[in-house]
Amino acid sequence: MEYVNPEGLRLDGRRPMEMRQIRAEIGSVAKADGSALFEMGNTKVIAAVYGPREVQNRSQQISDKALVRCEYSMANFSTGDRMRKPKGDRRSTEISLVIRQTMEACIMTHLMPRSQIDIFVQVLQADGGTRSACINAATLALADAGIPLRDLVTSCSAGYLNSTPLLDLNYVEDSAGGPDVTVGFLPKLDKVTLLQMDSKLSIDLFENVMQLAIEGCKAVANYIREILLENTKQLEYRRGL
Amino acid sequence: MREIQLSLNKTQKIRLQRALEKLESLSSKVNSHASVTIADSIPVSYEDGVLKGHGTLDFNGELVSTVCGVVERVNKLVYVRTLRAKYKPEVGDIIVGRVSEVAQKRWRLDINYSQDAVLMLSSMNLADGIQRRRTALDELNMRSIFEEDDVICAEVRGFQYDGLHLQARSQKYGKLQRGQLLTVPPYLMKRRKQHFHHLDQYGVDLILGCNGFIWVGEHVEARDDMVEDQEKKPELQNTKSQKNSMSLEDQERTYTPIETRQNICRIANAIRVLSTLGFNITAEVITETVNLSSSLNLDIHQMLGSEFCVLVAEGEAERRSLTKRKG
Amino acid sequence: MLHSKTFVKKTRGGKVNKQVREHYLRDDIYCGAPICKVCDSSAARLSPSASTILIVDTNVVLHQIDLLENPAIDDVVMLSIVLEEVKNKNMAVYNRVRALCSNSMRRFFVFANEHHKDTFVKEMNKESKNDRNDRAIRVAAQWYQNHLGGAARVLLITNDRENKRKAIEEGISAETIESYVKSLDQPNLLDLLVQPASEDVNMEEVEDLRPSKRKVIYAEHKPMSEITSGLHRGIYHQGKLRVNRYNPFEAYVGSESIGDEIIIYGRANMNRAFDGDIVAVELLPQDQWYEEKSLSIADEEDGEEDVHLVPNSADDAPRTTNVVQGSAGDAKIMSSRPSGFVVGIIKRNWHAYCGSLEPMPLPAGSGGTAHALFVSKDRRIPKIRIQTRQLENLLDKRIIVVVDSWDHLSRYPSGHYVRTIGEIGDRDTESEVVLIENDINSRPFSSQVLACLPSLPWSVSSEDLANPIRQDLRHLRVFSVDPPGCKDIDDALHCITLPNGNFEVGVHIADVTNFVLPGTPLDDEATQRGTSVYLVERRIDMLPKPLTEDICSLRADVERLAFSVIWEMTSEAEIISKRYTKSVIKSSAAMSYIEAQARMDDSRLMDPLTTDLRNMNTLAKIMRLKRIERGALTLASAEVKFQIDTETHDPLDIGMYQIREANQMVEEFMLAANVSVAEKILKHFPVISLLRRHPSPTREMLEPLLRTAAAVGLNLDVSSSKALADSLDHAVGDDPYFNKLIRILATRCMTQAVYFCSGDLSPQEYHHYGLAAPLYTHFTSPIRRYADVIVHRLLAASLEIQKLPSIFQDQPQLTSIADNLNYRHRNAQMASRASVELHTLIYFRKRPTDTEARIVKIRANGFIVFVPKYGIEGPVHLAPRSEKGSGEWFVDEQQQKIKKMDGSLSFSVLQTIRIHMEVVEPQPNRPKLQLTLI
């Protein structure tokens, strides 16, 4: 299958180094302490953050830092085939764990001892790169909830098909079975906090692909910053003196 | 960015846009550069020495924000005031909370903080008003004072090893009944001298809790009366059954009139609108909003419609520009 | 850069499924015309002076690809929608168009109209996909017209009347391909033009003046929907049609649903299917499963068996069916071979065919259009009707023709002429035909490929010597033994007696991977070529000549880089230790087999080199014995060797290839090296190793051998390779050649060994039957086989001295490389054989000969004989062909004998007879070798 044609265009008309259109919206869940919607092309993810709040199960309370929990689910209507069981399978458990660990690494949990932070992410529409979109949405939601973070975490994936590194794979490219590198990145600290790939790739190629994914993360970070700053300004001027 | 989630038609959209832009232009002169997001570095002059406050972090000698908010500087202290965040208690804050649990000699209250607050039995004025050691009997009767899910008004006493402590050693604190509890983002509340408001013309009490919980309820005439009342028949208060029968009678006697109920709703909706728009919530603004709605002859439910929302926004813009000019 | 997106819905499988895909429209797609001032012209492909820019529609590309490939057509804009449609319809044409678009000599530009913001069209309500695409083409044409303004004329080429009408209405200039070509005023281009179907009817009437006018000859193909449902219900069976190479009226369809091959007899049942087509077949009722036609040597119409080389494996040999047995009325065998007929063709495998025109009288008044029948060199292909304006030129030429269509009303498919190769019978022409037929790329290497070569003169540099991965073995007495005149020496040997009485034996293979780096154009080219091809008079190299003959070749007295396998062996040839290393060697002698043999045989010579040779020979003999004990087969082939006149390149003499001890010695060590390397790489890379396997022959495949053996009273045990090897050893007849003959017959029953990727099969299947080795690979000839290059890389990676190229991460791609290698390897062999056959013919053209031959197969009207001296095989007819062998001759199946009715004469299988060989020309320009009984 030809994923990049000789003219250098991918199936959906992007060039190899281009991301899909990204869009973010803060405060989409009124009830939550922080919430956000994040779209990467047709992948659409909503995240809600509750907390820090009293730990529901006392036995899980940690005396010197906050407990972070995460639940990932996919809406039944998120894929082409209607899903029967949108959460609780191995895949969602794994992604929940991945998101939790990634977010926990940057939340300053020691500032909120004996409390709990719940992150709920749900995929409204899946078109590849859900993992990345979830992390981006969760970051926005956490920032919206006013939870202190060491740095923003942004994520982006990159793959390698037809001997070309491709940024931000969509579903069709993702299901091609080639390597798919998902990177979680702290732009200010310039550190990688998440790195996943479940196929083989030679090390020098891998570095190229990873570097590409990191570039993607940086682009996402710039966008997220813009959105957050704009949001903060809005809140501030609306509130008045 | 946060969008106001209303279904607006085209003209309303434009009007709202214009009003918001006006607000922006009014505030932008103050401190538009002070807004930061996570991991933005905060410019400081190190020669003067810096005290790192909340929401900041030292990163390779650079002062970096860890939250989204506005940079505030008080002498050497530099901190970031967060906007949308959980309530941060300060001693003496008047708060409204909801009982989440009745425990050993204490109530736990949800006050929109990262942990539940503790109200010790001993920090309560007893019904009989006598200062004495709390007996086991008092402990057993705690539920007769506050039960789970009761709404309570109290004051922040301070932090102790086991969390945040409250006190309610005044007659103005205590259980709140016959009204509505509203929750708004705490950053919209300002600490003021007065948090208890009696809106005479509506016969309504308004308690603006610093934690973003707002109580709108039927006006209770001087609580001292209650104290007297309770002093007269202290024994009645002690048995639950009697109290219940009493309150049934009470209810019949003090049945809240429909006008008061409507007023409560009107005020509550005014607060909701303000909260949706993200405007600072003070008693004056609330009254103004209520007046606006009454002057327009709007039904209570119409207050939550998009048209009123736009009107409020325009009104607020007008008001602020006026105060600005005066100032 | 990102623009709006639209959504496309698709259905798939049985259920309706809404699929949403993003579709980005861009503003950075350029028109490709250098004259354009708006667009970035750095990637422009069209010529700056182009007065007319052509935009072609899908059908034009699909049908007129030969025309497009002609350099007269240039400055063409290929729309991406057209490419996509072509790709869906015909992958072969798509690849050709792609090649055109990437060819820097041609000015074809791909315009991604589907992603351009101005030329994207949305499907309208109730508009069919085709209409939408046609509209997209028109919109793109319009855009070009407006975009370029008056700078160039934009011409839409379409043969669709409706499309053309609409285009003209919309103000786009449009023309049909015919009128455009006519306007170019180049009559030879018209031959390349495919005639539209409507004219086809006229043409047939003109030519076919026979009374059987407009007769329906073939059954109509079933519509695709019916075929799909039929396949689903199990009425039809899908498979690839394989036409019998020796009998074009018989074909086989390997069907998975039946698990057996379905035989298809006759053109009517084949129903216009070509070799290689994917077809749907319906089974005939069981009582019709056997048909008379194939009994005798196929000669229904013009079928005939040619004299050809002795097959080397079952893959080359004529298909043996049980029909001969069937004639004895054995119902059980009949029912085991289902036969059927083609109801529809799922996928065509049409490509270009080499051949010549059937001789015909020149029509009066030359220059006009004439119709002619084309006969392909490949007998499996039916005659093809073509139309030409240059008949007199073409009659005695080898030409290339492609098929366009085959209507059920016409007996032959119709096609069109593509190009001329040369005169029939001319050696160069015929060699070229051999190459084209076997899909061998004999073009010179491109400049990009040559740029990858190290500069000449090349010598081992000090860096190479200093490289820690490279061991300096220059002090060893290394020598090579090869066929005389060999220039691409890729293996060398050494042998040292160790103080403890053991031997250190080293095999040094040219370190080709040091020069052929993965991912370079050189590597890509070598991957494609797969192997060097050895024809009688020339060699087509896999790698460019400087590498093949100089830099990599382990010539005497020069320092060369090598990859070495070094064993320590006891005097019983037990391997004690193995070592693999890259090295630098300096060969002390490059001997031919004859020289090496002479040295060993000359007992007076006692120099160290000769001692080494003798030691090695002793070891090799032991190793060979062990191998045979394990059950390796000693098979025989009847390879021939030509002596070629250096001036004229004509064959001077022909003789059997002689195998000496020295050959066997070298071969033995190469086998051992291959086995050692196979073990090593498989251990490190269990799923991505490239190995070579040889499947055990099935009993059915050995059937002809057993029958022949039984007829001469020989009992062969074929239960295992060991048993077969033993019984072959015991098959000693009354004459010395008998054993070899049996071995040759055994050889042709075997399939060929194949390359495979170890992850694709289970370890039991890795077995190499012929060598009786559990593992085998190719390591020793990297100069001429690409498989060895891959194995070199694997071995280097397993020694951790080099990184594994990224291609190895991709198992499917590795599998496809292995498939390509098998295909190329097979084609190379076919080409060599064809080349030998060609030269045999040239040789006998002037030399009618009487010689001795052996009967190998009995047929109804004669027998097939094998001529040991020349390694050829062919039919001897006892009766004139017209009489069909009926009457006086009688075949005894059991005894494999053919007798004259009166009993005066009888011939049995393996009998020696004398024949006369002569080249005859039954038709002008069609020489063939004829064998007749003396």
Overview of this protein structure:
The complex is a heterotrimer of chains A (241), B (327) and C (934). Chain A has helices at 90-104, 130-144, 171-174, 203-239, and strands spanning 22-26, 34-40, 43-54, 67-74, 115-125, 154-161, 164-167, 180-186, 191-196. Chain A has one domain (22-239): GHMP Kinase, N-terminal domain (Ribosomal Protein S5, domain 2, 2-Layer Sandwich), CATH 3.30.230. Chain A has a 5-stranded mixed β-sheet with strand order 1-2-3-5-4. Chain A has a 4-stranded antiparallel β-sheet with strand order 7-6-8-9, with helices on both faces. Chain A is built from 4 helices and 9 strands. By secondary structure, chain B is α+β, with helices and mostly antiparallel strands. Chain B has 3 domains: 31-82, RNA polymerase II/Efflux pump adaptor protein, barrel-sandwich hybrid domain (OB fold (Dihydrolipoamide Acetyltransferase, E2P), Beta Barrel); 94-256, Beta Barrel (OB fold (Dihydrolipoamide Acetyltransferase, E2P)); 259-326. In chain B, 35% of the residues lie in helices and 26% in strands. In chain B, the strands form 4 sheets. In chain B, strands 7-8-9-11-10 form a 5-stranded mixed barrel. The two termini of chain B are 31 Å apart. The model of chain B is unreliable at 224-243 (pLDDT under 50). Chain C contains 27 helices and 36 strands. A 6-stranded antiparallel β-sheet of chain C has the order 10-31-30-29-35-36, with helices on one face. The model of chain C is unreliable at 198-213, 291-304 and 318-335 (pLDDT under 50). Chain C is globular. Chain C is 31% helix and 24% strand. Chain C folds into 5 domains: 41-187, Rossmann fold, CATH 3.40.50.1010; 197-216 and 350-424, OB fold (Dihydrolipoamide Acetyltransferase, E2P) (Beta Barrel); 234-347, OB fold (Dihydrolipoamide Acetyltransferase, E2P); 447-605 and 659-692 and 759-832, no CATH class; 848-933, Beta Barrel (OB fold (Dihydrolipoamide Acetyltransferase, E2P)). Classes of the chains: A alpha+beta (241), B alpha+beta (327), C alpha+beta (934). Chain A: Keywords: Cytoplasm, Exosome.
